């Protein structure tokens, strides 16, 4: 149990590098003379880049009369506390994808966006942070503070990156939660089948590992949810999917809720997990319900969930088999 306890503590206290580490990254300096669309690197978001539906939602939120969850018809409630909306115009999608493809073609090395994605780009590190910050403050925040008034009372930083899934690279992403207070995730391309997004419960809740919804990506459409919601990217069947993800952070909310970093915050699980909500990387009982995924040997010794003392009744003692 001591090993599992230490793994849990290490997981809770592992925070990826944020903006202060991304300031004038080497990739930013090297890519500056190669930029294809300079307008993407400025602190402005022209109205032609956003979908009319997004403008409608933002205006409704700013009116002061918006009530959760029926802000306006343009906002779709996927499941409780998970929302989606048309976000970017075809003009922006074409421009942004072209720039990312240009960066890939440059051959400039880029850090992985997080510990679970092997292919992607931290867009802050190639110089796009001013534009992303403007978009966060002018479009994401007005919506998020109505939907999630505590976690989104302010946004003072973000970790923003591209993820890419293909049959030859990352097929999908294991079940996880985000190191964000609010997560924005928009599909930018291309043609693909599969690659849905499965949602489960909230970290630490009794139904943490119970399935709640399967979301199907559409190009230009964004999904918005709390970072503490367990979710995973289902395997792509064919084609390529590329998404822009913005992890918004609220330092004041984090300081006011230190209990989220403590083991006692995690409630005892109500019952066995739904198989689709299991994480090979994080869950101690994974092999009691599913076979070991091929090609995922690394990370198995990080299993910590559920924490000791928070197991459901008749929890299988499968630590030895993992």
UniProtKB/TrEMBL annotation:
<keyword id="KW-0223">Dioxygenase</keyword>
<keyword id="KW-0408">Iron</keyword>
<feature type="region of interest" description="Disordered">
    <location>
        <begin position="291"/>
        <end position="322"/>
    </location>
</feature>
<feature type="domain" description="Fe2OG dioxygenase">
    <location>
        <begin position="156"/>
        <end position="250"/>
    </location>
</feature>
<dbReference type="Pfam" id="PF25238">
    <property type="entry name" value="OGFOD2-like"/>
</dbReference>
<dbReference type="GO" id="GO:0051213">
    <property type="term" value="F:dioxygenase activity"/>
</dbReference>
<dbReference type="GO" id="GO:0031418">
    <property type="term" value="F:L-ascorbic acid binding"/>
</dbReference>
<dbReference type="InterPro" id="IPR006620">
    <property type="entry name" value="Pro_4_hyd_alph"/>
</dbReference>
<dbReference type="GO" id="GO:0005506">
    <property type="term" value="F:iron ion binding"/>
</dbReference>
<keyword id="KW-0847">Vitamin C</keyword>
<keyword id="KW-0560">Oxidoreductase</keyword>
<protein>
    <recommendedName>
        <fullName>Fe2OG dioxygenase domain-containing protein</fullName>
    </recommendedName>
</protein>
<keyword id="KW-0479">Metal-binding</keyword>
<dbReference type="GO" id="GO:0016705">
    <property type="term" value="F:oxidoreductase activity, acting on paired donors, with incorporation or reduction of molecular oxygen"/>
</dbReference>
<dbReference type="InterPro" id="IPR005123">
    <property type="entry name" value="Oxoglu/Fe-dep_dioxygenase_dom"/>
</dbReference>
